[in-house]
């Protein structure tokens, strides 16, 4: 997957001294840094995790800041937008309730069967 380039401008400094104006040019740097999608999706997923009362066998241990949320267990994201499109946590013996998930605006598949 090719990540979009992020253009970053460094400071443009213009100094005016007693001897007259001295200008420094604007530098343009190109970084191939991945953009990680919508933080709203991450917060919605963390809210789901918070509502769970029992998470056996560390099934959601990947749901932390060490990985991007699109790499979390049971989460599928669109490649282009990096938005959550599927949440598949069936047969995990999870116990709890499901909070409102309206912030997962790209979600098209939700599979939570065989949980409580």
TrEMBL record:
Gene3D superfamilies reported for this sequence: Ribonuclease Inhibitor
Originating organism? Vitis vinifera (Grape)
Nucleotide-binding recorded as keyword = no
Instruction: List keywords of the entry alphabetically.
Output: Leucine-rich repeat, Repeat, Signal
Domain Leucine-rich repeat-containing N-terminal plant-type, residue spans: 39-78
Organism lineage string: Eukaryota, Viridiplantae, Streptophyta, Embryophyta, Tracheophyta
* InterPro entries reported in the protein's UniProt record: DNA_repair-toleration (IPR053211), LRR_dom_sf (IPR032675), LRR_N_plant-typ (IPR013210)
Matching Pfam families: LRRNT_2
Q: What is the name listed in the Swiss-Prot or TrEMBL entry for this protein?
A: Leucine-rich repeat-containing N-terminal plant-type domain-containing protein
């Amino acid at each position: 997957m090719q990540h979009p380039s992020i253009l970053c401008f460094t400071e443009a400094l213009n100094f005016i001294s007693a001897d007259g104006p001295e200008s420094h040019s604007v530098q343009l740097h190109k970084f191939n840094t991945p953009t990680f999608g919508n933080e709203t999706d991450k917060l919605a997923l963390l809210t789901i995790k918070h509502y769970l009362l029992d998470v056996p066998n560390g099934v959601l241990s990947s749901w932390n800041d060490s990985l991007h949320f699109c790499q979390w267990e049971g989460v599928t994201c669109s490649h282009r937008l990096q938005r959550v499109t599927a949440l598949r946590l069936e047969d995990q013996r999870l116990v709890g309730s499901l909070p409102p998930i309206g912030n997962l605006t790209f979600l098209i598949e939700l599979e939570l069967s065989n949980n409580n």
